[in-house]
Amino acid sequence: MPVLLASALSWAQRPDTGVPTANSAVPPPESMAARVQACTACHGREGRATPDGYFPRLAGKPQAYLYHQLLNFREGRRRYPLMSGLLEHLSDAYLAEMAAYFAGLEIPYPPPRPPVVDSALLERGRRLVQQGDAGRGLPACVQCHGPAMTGLLPAVPGLLGLPRDYLNSQLGAWQTGQRQAQAPDCMAKVARMLSADEVSAVSAWLASQALPANPRAVASLPQPLPLKCGGLTAEGAS
User: Fold this and answer.
1) Using only C-alpha atoms, what is the Rg of the chain?
2) Residues 108-151 pLDDT 10s
3) Do residues 48 and 92 touch, judged by C-beta distance below 8 A?
4) Per residue in 13-59, pLDDT tens?
5) Can you give the CATH number for the domain in which 40 is found?
6) Coil, helix or strand for 38?
7) Which positions ≥6 away from 58 have C-beta within 8 Å?
8) 176 in a domain, yes or no?
């Protein structure tokens, strides 16, 4: 029995874990849908995320991005003991298969929650996301994550459809080194240029935006990436 499926079954038998269970009928035991039940227990049915803000959406994200994050958790570049424990015995090939499964899911996004901050903070966040700050060498989020913030194939994620708490926590993790990527770690460089107020503004604006009709990652950008990023070329290809 695959490690991930065994973990899912053991969780299902333990009511004291405090972890939400996946919904609906049990999938065929040898399908990938069954094997990733440990993932959907936290990340929501079909990887569509949960409303608590700490378990992000997996469904429909770029395949290479999901694969890299699974590797990062397994290799310790991202730190969350539950994830690391689930992945430590899984091969690269199996992680790639998991990433392909979630990337292929087309699940509707929920509407964004109304913002709970004032308009001035939202406007500050919008400017940083769409324009950056050239005087400080701070690139705009859209320069890497796509004009509509839906991500860039094959490995840059979208930033819409994520809860504000999750966005805050991840930017904070980049700043403190709790989250890392292959060198050069461009996202860590960008995050460390942001003040606490700017993190709050960016996360508030992103979390308040609805996704476009086509939420899929784009295949190319109008211009090359503004920074060198580990695992990516200047055009954003893996």
Assistant:
1) 18
2) 988 998 888 999 999 999 999 999 999 999 999 999 999 999 99
3) no
4) 333 333 434 444 567 777 898 999 889 889 988 898 876 667 889 99
5) 1.10.760.10
6) helix
7) 39, 43, 47, 49, 66, 102, 105
8) no
In a domain, 168, yes or no: no
Sign of torsion over alpha carbons 10, 16, 21, 24 = positive
Dmax over Cα atoms in the chain, in whole Å?
A: 56
In a domain, 197, yes or no: no
**DSSP state at residue 25:** S
Number of structural domains found in the chain: 1
Report CA-CA distances (Å) from 85 to 98, 101, 141.
Answer: 16, 20, 32
pTM: 0.81
Give the domain range for residue 87. 3-103
How far apart CA 163 and CA 88 sit, in angstroms, is: 28
Could you tell me how many residues make up the chain? 238
Cβ-count burial 94-132 (b if 16+ within 10 Å, e if not): bbbebbebbbeeebebeebeebebeeebbebbbebbeeb
d(CA 155, CA 95): 15
Residues 6+ apart with CB under 8 A from 104: 63
Write phi, then psi, for 2 (nearest 5 degrees). Answer: -55, 145
Question: How far is 63 from 216, CA to CA, in rounded Å?
Answer: 11
Is 227 inside any structural domain?
Answer: no
Asked if 37 contacts 31 with a C-beta cutoff of 8 angstroms, the reply is no
Q: Helices 164-176 and 196-207, interaxial angle, to 10°?
A: 150
